[in-house]
Design brief:
The chain has helices at about 5-25, 30-50, 55-75, 85-130, 150-155, 160, 165-175, 185-190, 235-255, 270-280, 280-285, 290-300, 305-310, 360-400, 410-435, 450-465, 485-505, 535, 555-565; strands at about 135-140, 145, 195-200, 205-215, 225-230, 255-260, 265-270, 315-325, 330-340, 345-355, 445, 470-475, 480-485, 510-515, 520-525, 570-575, 580-585. With about 600 residues, the protein is α+β, with helices and mostly antiparallel strands. A hairpin with a 3-residue loop joins strand 16 (about 570-575) and strand 17 (about 580-585). GO terms for molecular function: ATP binding.
């Protein structure tokens, strides 16, 4: 790491420790304030990737960083029973530091992806540079995007001058660029064009120049540009000999595995990198169909795979991932490929480029593990925060009782009115938490939907009258039956209606609307509250996320899990100042 980079990161660490001190001192949880730190952590991970550090080194650095922060916290903020709040803040900070570490790994991963993309471009350019003929690539507007050395040499300009020039400008520089009118329009319409032109050389006299213009297609088959190949003026035999010689050298210099298949999908070329990736020599595979090889070494049928389907139809392949086992070794590969077409555009073979993704997959799994640890930290922080209040009450009562400040005559009343409700609240929070983290499978049975809806209305009518909120029902009379766990679904409706009552002013209206669309019954709970802020809307189904002063933040996550267990969806739409609509969609058998 360079000196200026080290100084910048040291300053960043000091600022982060200062921010951690503020959180520990005030308890304020401003999520927006973490964003600059996370972004810097991702940039630093990218920087470490560019310095050729391994994933293990990045994870080790992240662990050291985590330990440094928490050693600082423990040294400066010792715990005692009067400072119970500090424990929750520490758990909160643990979750955030884990997220920070994940962003470092994400940045490192971004560098690896960028490195792979650069290697692909470099390998393509390397192949095209080594070919013994002129190669140019144009975009849809006819501007030059790439030219190998042989193509640039014929223009008598530098690479910087040539790139970006139009085809019309290049014709003035290179007599080999001449072509009949309408040729470019044919290529842009997806038609390959092969031309033969004559030119006179002072040294060699009359020469015959062969040129191919090949349309470049995207995954949807749309033309995105053109590749033009101009062959040197030599005999066909000499041209093929030079091509074979150069092509073999290029194949074995590539950092990706390359397979060339003929029309029957038998291997005709197989480079050294492919041998390293698969652990199979060229002698073992050349001349054999890829279908037979796949069956032989994986004991699986390839004829129904996406890879075989694309090759059979002559379609390009982009970033297709396969996980296979060869000779007891697990392997994850990424496959890119293009059909080989003749002069008439008919596929006569296929080129496959293979990249080993096994190490990259391991890096992704490491990042997912860190994300799980961060989630555990967030859950633990939420549980500690919610249970602390009832435990504090119980602890205070027991202290008073131990100091004989509570009269024996009052013990029974205080136990019934204070201790038992507080302990019951803690038990409810734990039960809700277990429902979110380890939900019970619904005990579903066929239920008359109309009867179920009537039962739900009976449950919420008294609360509606008590709150002074008008309850309106809009439902068709011929609702289809549903497979429901009645108790779980009633809990969902009670949670949503209670939230609606909490935000609807007296005299307002709560609407329960039922719609049948395709094979889904949609239950809508519509309130006339102030709506949900945009920054809160994306977090409302996260455990312990709440905007209520005394809310636990578990009602909506529990409801979401229950609906998912029924194979349905719980969605929300909200407009500030207008109200909120929660939609429960439950599928039914037609």
């Amino acid at each position: 790491m360079q000196e200026d980079e080290y100084l910048s990161y040291s300053q960043h660490v000091r600022e982060l420790i200062h921010f951690v001190n503020e959180v520990m001192a005030t308890g304020e949880r401003n999520e927006q304030s973490w964003i600059p730190f996370f972004e810097y952590g991702q940039e630093f991970g990218y920087l470490m990737g560019s310095r050729n550090m391994t994933l293990e080194m990045v994870l080790e650095l992240g662990t050291m960083f985590h330990e440094t922060i928490f050693t600082h916290i423990m040294r400066n903020y010792p715990l005692s029973h009067e400072e119970q709040e500090a424990f929750g803040r520490m758990l909160y900070l643990s979750a955030k530091i884990n997220t920070y570490m994940n962003r470092m790994v994400l940045g490192f991963h971004a560098w690896q992806e960028a490195k792979i993309n650069r290697m692909i471009v470099q390998e393509r350019n390397q192949i095209l540079e080594q070919l013994p003929f002129s190669v140019t690539i144009y975009d849809q507007e006819g501007r030059l995007q790439f030219a190998n050395d042989l193509a640039i040499k014929s223009t008598k300009l530098t690479r910087e001058e040539v790139i970006g020039m139009t085809r019309a400008e290049l014709r003035v520089r290179d007599s080999r660029s001449q072509e009949p009118d309408g040729t470019w329009r044919k290529v842009m319409a997806g038609e390959p064009v092969k031309l033969r032109t004559e030119m006179t050389s002072e040294e060699d006299g009359l020469l015959l120049i062969e040129k191919e213009m090949i349309p470049l297609l995207d995954e949807a088959g749309a033309v995105t540009g053109s590749m033009t190949i101009v062959y040197p003026a030599v005999s066909e035999k000499e041209r093929l000999y030079n091509l074979h010689k150069q092509f073999s050298f290029v194949l074995n210099s590539m950092n990706s595995g390359l397979l060339i298949l003929n029309q029957d999908f038998s291997l005709t070329a197989y480079n050294k990198k492919a041998e390293e990736i698969f652990g199979l020599s060229a002698e073992q595979v050349l001349g054999t169909s890829v279908l037979e090889l796949y069956q032989r070494y994986t004991e699986k049928d390839m004829s129904h795979s996406k890879l075989y389907s694309a090759m059979k139809r002559g379609l390009p392949i982009r970033s297709l991932e396969y996980s296979i086992t060869l000779n007891g070794r697990g392997l994850t590969i990424r496959i890119d490929g293009n059909p080989i077409k003749n002069a008439h555009g008919v596929p006569v073979g296929y080129i496959l480029i293979i990249d080993d993704q096994t190490e990259l997959l391991a890096m992704r799994e490491a990042m997912m593990r860190n994300e799980k640890f961060a989630l555990i930290g967030q859950f633990a922080a939420g549980i500690a925060h919610e249970i602390r209040n009832p435990l504090t009450t119980v602890f205070g009562f027991l202290q008073l009782f131990a100091s004989r400040s509570v009269q024996p005559d009052n013990f029974h009343d205080l136990t019934v009115k204070l201790l038992i409700p507080e302990l019951d609240r803690a038990n409810t929070i734990l039960s809700d938490f277990l429902m979110v983290s380890r939900p019970q499978a619904p005990q579903r049975q066929l239920v008359d939907t109309q009867t179920f809806l009537i039962d739900v209305l009976r449950l919420v009518e008294s609360e509606s009258n008590l709150r002074g909120v008008m309850l309106e029902v809009d439902a068709p009379s011929d609702l289809p039956s549903l497979h429901l766990d009645v108790q779980q679904m009633k809990q969902v409706f009670l949670n949503l209606c209670k939230n609606a009552f909490d935000v609807t002013p007296p005299g307002g209206k709560l609407v329960l609307r039922v719609k049948v669309e395709a094979s889904i019954v949609n239950f809508e709970v519509i309130d006339e509250g102030p709506g949900i802020l945009a920054e809160d809307l994306s977090h409302i189904f996260e455990p312990f996320y709440t905007t209520k002063e005394h809310g636990t933040g578990l009602g909506l996550p529990i409801s979401h899990r229950i609906i998912e267990g029924h194979g349905g969806m719980l969605t929300v739409r909200s407009t500030e100042g207008v109200g909120t609509i929660f939609v429960i969609g439950i599928p039914f058998a037609q």
